[in-house]
Amino acid sequence: MLRRVERSSNFRVFSQTQEFFFKSLNLCMCFASPSFACNQNAFFSSASSSGNGRSDGSPEQNPYFGALFSKMTDLGCQNHYLSGKGEPNPRTDISHDSNESGEAIEGPFHSSGRRLASEFSEMCDLDDRSETDEESDGVDDSDDSEFGVLNLFKRNSDQRVSNERFQEEKDESRHPLVKETCRLIGLRHAWNPKLEAELRSLLRSLKPIQVSAVLCSQPDARLAVSYFHWADRQWRYRHSPDVYCTMLEILSKTKLSQASRRVLRLMIRRGITRKPEDFANVMVSYSRAGKLRSAMRVLNLMQKDGCSPDLVICNTAIHVLVMANRLEKALRFLHRMQSVGINPDVVTFNCLIKGFCDVHRVEDALEMIREMPFKGCPPDKISYYTVITFLCKEKRVEEVRELLEKMKNDSNLIPDQVTHNLLIHVLSKHGHSDEALGFLQESEEKGFRVDKVGYSAIIHSFCRDGRMEEAKDIVKEMITKGRLPDVVTYTAVVNGFCRIGKIDQARKLMDYMYKKGCKPNAVTYTAFLNGLCRIGSSIEAKDMLNKSEEEWWTPTAITYSVVMHGLRREGKLAEACNLVFQMIKNGFFPTPIEINQLIHALCRDGKPIEAKKFMEDCQSKGCTITVVIFTTLIHGFCRSGDLVSAISLLDDMFLSNRHPDVVTYTVVIDALGKNERFEEASELMKNMLNRGLVPTPITYRTVIHRYCAKGSVDELLKLLDKMLARQGFRTAYNQIIEKLCGFGRLDEAYKVIGKVLRTASKMDADTCHILMDCFLKKGLPLLSYKLACRMFRRNLIPNVKLCQKVSNKLLLDGKSAEAGRLMVKFIERGQSLV
After folding, report:
1. How do residues 360-394 score in pLDDT, each as one tens digit?
2. Cα(399)–Cα(433) distance, rounded to whole angstroms?
3. Which of helix, strand or coil describes residue 322?
4. Which CATH number fits the domain that encloses residue 290?
5. Which of 13, 196, 461, 771 is the most exposed place for a label (fewest CB within 10 A)?
6. Where in the sequence is the domain holding 566, given as residue range(s)?
């Protein structure tokens, strides 16, 4: 009873304190937001009461109180009573994690309570336009607006701080708290509030360096992002600046550019000092995702932020420009950074050397190597290796040898074993096996020991070219020199035998591998099964696949795909479908392309019903079913004449949240037109246009062919008006006339010829010639004459030889006046009749 009285008393005291807090905040907000003051009564009444009659002031227990606390901290207010600390915990960005397509990532770290949307999205300086127009097609070569950030270098030169970290950081990945946190994160599939409470408790015990270790220990960067934002939303916790830097560094190794951008936005909102390497990490993430234009826009953000550039960010910018094939702009950037006092290093020049090699300007690359010592930056081996790699691709071996001499004489860089291994691997990779073998022999003569990896590369190159005898000789040479071949070497030879159809020799080699204690792995068996499927023995390949457990090897997804494609090519579609389900049972999922190929094969054999059942079974087992797969199946039903099922499947796409594309609509419209159901085809086309889909040239040709075949020209013209209003198609009316001529409907074609003569181009003249020739073949020279006259009126000169045929035909029909006038028109326009 005393406890209950004490609890009630505490609640009244807290309620009075809370009421005082709300009124004080209301007084502050009256000057900032009139709307807030107007609604304070309703807000206070809902915030001061809870469903169970209790309130502990925690944002996790009282969502309204937490929301108001977030509002308060966003405005810069501080309340020691609430946070228990001298500074608040701003909870500003609490939106869901996003993947690269903008969809929410359903991670395990989203709190179950109510979350408010961030009110600081308008305050971020980052250009939000990069969300909408992040093209991967490169950077504008004429716009140097990004170079403005270099002007900050002199202005803030006295404020620059070295980015080097002199203190040696301790590895915290094996700390018990870090390991336990990683274990709980790994249990995300069995997540519940109890585990989240444990993870929250661990978070408050972790040091910033340990939080960074947790992020670095995640096998997937998306998990690290989810944990980062989950921790950022927790009560009484704030990420240190080092954690933000670690998160950006992790994301710079991935293509998650939007996640990297969001972390940088958080740093800007929270007032955390940004360093040039933070912006560089965001640029690298954008460049890995192919969003090169957005990567360069980071420099504009850096300029707005007032962050002084350094050599790291400049090298990153030059690298991005080189990747975007904007070498000239990269050179201008180099000149600009030198003019403001940022001296390039060897990394800068190496990026430009690679840019020269990418555009086949190897002479300029060599010239830059020669000039580097005079600029206080002698070239290193990477500088030479970049040019050597390009020369090896081009099979310019003599120039490679000359460059190796220059590397030794001019730069005092002695070619070592790494150099020779590079030459061997690059030449082998690009199919220059003889040259690679020559360098291997030369390197061994100089005392360098080429390992079995180098030998395996050359063997693989010979086997890929079908030169198995040379490959076998190299294997024997390896054994005599004490470089025992490993499973990679033998697998290359097995694959070579299978490529030329010598399955028996490949089988003998695999038996030999067992005798020598070199057990074939999944790659070896995959190569062998592929060889069996190539010669039409896919059933044998399937049997070997089923016996994989007995042979103590584990097939991969590629192994299943190889056998599945073999069965499909041989027409054993039932076995191929069963293998897909076996593949799914073993934890491997076929790609949408593989599913589509099987469905196409079933439909081609006239089995669309079986194909539909196969698709539904795959979808129920978790396979990805795309719009292309639906379109293939719809086309299969259309080919079999089952339009009811095709249209029903089109409706099912919307129920499955797969929206048909223009190809899907084109397939159904073609089938409706083939069955003379033009009214339904027109309605379907209107639906397609209303959904914002743009007709393609194939759509136009399909519609024109079907309508012209049945002579429904009036309906076609009405439909074309709507299609052309959405997407222009220059030759639409030309194709109508040509199709009508092909179907012998010359009267309808003559009615449409006026739409062609509006533009009077050479293509239109060719169309008119086709119609004139058809009139002549039908014995209607007078209509040919009238068409020629219409061409003259449009200043379009018809073909002389064709008009002479028309004139001769008119003379035979007794129409000499028209024949003479036709020839006179040529003379009036200065055309020769010879």
Report:
1. 998 999 999 998 988 888 999 999 999 988 888 88
2. 17
3. helix
4. 1.25.40.10
5. 13
6. 536-588
